[in-house]
Design brief:
This protein is mostly helical. The chain has five helices and no strands. It has helices at 6-16, 40-51, 61-75, 78-104, 106-120. Helix 2 (40-51) crosses helix 4 (78-104). The longest helix is centred in the C-terminal third of the chain and has 27 residues, at 78-104. It is flat, with a radius of gyration of 28 Å. The protein starts with 5 loop residues before the first helix and ends with a helix. The mean pLDDT is 84.
Length: 121
């Protein structure tokens, strides 16, 4: 008498069906995209860390440092934030140009062809 557990039934059905399952090929990996520019707040944060004196201990550790950076950013006027925002806008223009070049590159076109071929199989 055959076992009637779901696992046994599935195993028997798989054994009866001698078809080999088709294995879909893996999709290709796209070439690396250009890096996005840092937003103004993160630029300020990096600047802040660069201006700290060596050995200065911030109360509250990393969380305290984040709170201090955030508080300083919120307290800044738009005029004080302007250099960080302008640097972001300048880098953003460069980034958008690089993205256009990226999608028009032969490497990306080759990736698209390989991806479409793999999807059809």
């Amino acid at each position: 008498m055959a076992a009637s557990t779901p696992v046994a039934v599935a195993a028997a059905a798989a054994a009866a069906n001698s078809q080999v399952p088709t294995v879909r090929p893996e999709l290709p990996t796209p070439p690396p995209e250009p890096s996005k520019p840092l937003v103004p707040y993160l630029r300020f944060s990096n600047h802040f860390w660069g201006t700290l004196e060596k050995g200065r201990v911030i109360k509250g550790g990393i969380a305290g440092a984040g709170a201090e950076i955030g508080g300083r950013w919120r307290a800044m006027t738009e005029e004080e934030k302007r250099p960080f925002k302008q640097a972001y806008e300048d880098d953003k223009k460069i980034y958008l140009e690089k993205v256009k070049q990226y999608y028009a590159s032969p490497e990306y076109k080759e990736y698209e062809k390989k991806r479409e071929t793999a999807k059809r199989q």
